[in-house]
């Protein structure tokens, strides 16, 4: 059974087929004269993948669980075809692609510890969490080792709302972090420890500062200082699971980063307590100390077109220009809440 690059969306697997395959017709998607390999060459990988799932009538179908997390196959139809062939060739209790499954207990216990840790940090212990358990037993340090360097020529944005109209834009030197004595606790930074919050999209920062109609806003443009290396942990990355020998670890990394990213992106309501920030403050400190990363990137929930960045040391970035903006249109949508 020959399978081609068009059957998959996983970039690592596509690269493998492109480099190792030959030109021929695909027996799965019927594409002609494409790079193909024998599906048998992937049996070991699928064996390693499938041992991370267990039959569970209350779970999701194997096909949908893989596709919803990784979009591994190019379509659900292709997923069903390949999985139904592979399942018959490897050692698994799963019957077919429509079998109801869930992740094995080892994975669920590892990821669910985030919820346990959140409650402990907020309610019972804050400064003496068991880092050794996170690193040695759960392996969380390895999940944040996938990092990227900020582009030296890319512009990042930060906004400050004016409290009076018809003022000039803030000067460049006032667009950075507040002083430690005036720094409130944020989603990433603890009280009194300023981090630099930026976005990679100019419009996103207007949403992030909760701008209102007719507000005047200074928008600062930031670049990496002197082309230095600024390594960032990316909570927005698509994690490939095609890495024979480490599939289990990649699954854990993907699931953990996804649930933490949801907490990082969650907007705070005016009546929420700052205690709600503590778990994400902790994970930022964990990343900063354990991995030596200089910041994190995560999706903006207020403006999905942009990503937010948190830089742990503002001296790594330089504000090069400030422009003045005025909010001329505000679109508010609502929905009825059933009680």
Label this structure with key terms.
339 residues, alpha+beta, three-stranded antiparallel β-sheet, 13 strands, 21% strand, globular
The major beta sheet can be summarized as: 5 strands, mixed
Q: Based on helices, strands and strand pairing, what is the structural class? A: alpha+beta
- Unreliable stretches, pLDDT < 50, 5 or more residues? none
**Biggest sheet, strands in spatial order?**
6-10-11-12-8
The number of E-state strands comes to: 13
Radius of gyration: 24 Å
> Helix fraction?
25-40%
How many DSSP helices?
10
Query: In angstroms, what separates the terminal alpha carbons?
Result: 55 Å
Task: Return the domain count.
Answer: 2
Strand-residue fraction? 15-25%
Calculate the mean pLDDT score and round it. 93
Assign an overall shape. globular
Question: What do these coordinates show?
Answer:
- With 339 residues, this protein is α+β, with helices and mostly antiparallel strands.
- It has 2 domains: 2-103, no CATH class; 147-326, no CATH class.
- The chain has 10 helices and 13 strands.
- Strands 6-10-11-12-8 form a 5-stranded mixed sheet. A 3-stranded antiparallel sheet has the order 1-3-2, with helices on one face.
- Strand 11 and strand 12 (307-311) form a beta hairpin.
- Helix 5 (105-123) packs parallel to helix 9.
- The protein starts with a strand and ends in a 13-residue tail after the last strand.
């Amino acid at each position: 059974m020959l399978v081609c690059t068009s059957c998959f969306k996983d970039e690592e697997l596509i690269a493998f087929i492109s480099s190792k395959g030959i030109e021929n017709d695909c027996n799965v998607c019927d594409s002609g004269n494409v790079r193909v390999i024998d599906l048998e060459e992937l049996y070991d990988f699928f064996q390693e993948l499938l041992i991370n799932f267990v039959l569970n009538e209350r779970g999701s179908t194997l096909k949908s669980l893989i596709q919803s997390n990784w979009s591994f196959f190019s379509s659900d139809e292709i997923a069903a075809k390949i999985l139904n062939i592979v399942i018959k060739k490897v050692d698994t209790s799963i019957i077919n692609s429509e079998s109801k499954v869930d992740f094995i207990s080892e994975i669920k216990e590892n990821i669910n510890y985030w919820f346990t840790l959140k409650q402990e940090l907020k309610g019972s212990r804050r400064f003496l969490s068991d880092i050794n358990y996170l690193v040695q037993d759960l392996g969380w340090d390895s999940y944040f080792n996938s990092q990227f360097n900020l582009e030296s020529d890319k512009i990042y944005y930060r906004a400050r709302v004016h409290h009076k109209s018809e003022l000039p834009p803030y000067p460049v030197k006032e667009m950075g972090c507040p002083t430690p004595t005036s720094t409130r606790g944020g989603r990433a930074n603890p009280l009194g420890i300023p981090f630099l919050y930026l976005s990679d999209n100019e419009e996103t920062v207007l949403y992030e500062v909760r701008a209102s109609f007719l507000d005047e806003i200074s928008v600062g443009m930031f670049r990496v200082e002197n082309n230095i290396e600024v390594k960032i942990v990316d909570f927005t990355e698509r994690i490939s699971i095609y890495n024979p020998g480490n599939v289990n670890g990649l699954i854990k990394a993907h699931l953990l980063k996804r649930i933490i990213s949801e907490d990082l992106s969650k907007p705070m309501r005016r009546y929420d307590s700052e205690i709600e920030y503590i778990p994400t403050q902790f994970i930022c400190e964990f990343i900063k100390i354990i991995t030596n990363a200089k910041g994190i990137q995560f999706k903006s929930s207020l403006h999905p077109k942009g990503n937010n960045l948190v830089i742990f040391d503002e001296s790594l970035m330089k504000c090069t220009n400030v422009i003045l903006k005025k909010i001329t249109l505000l679109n508010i949508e609502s929905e009825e809440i059933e009680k």
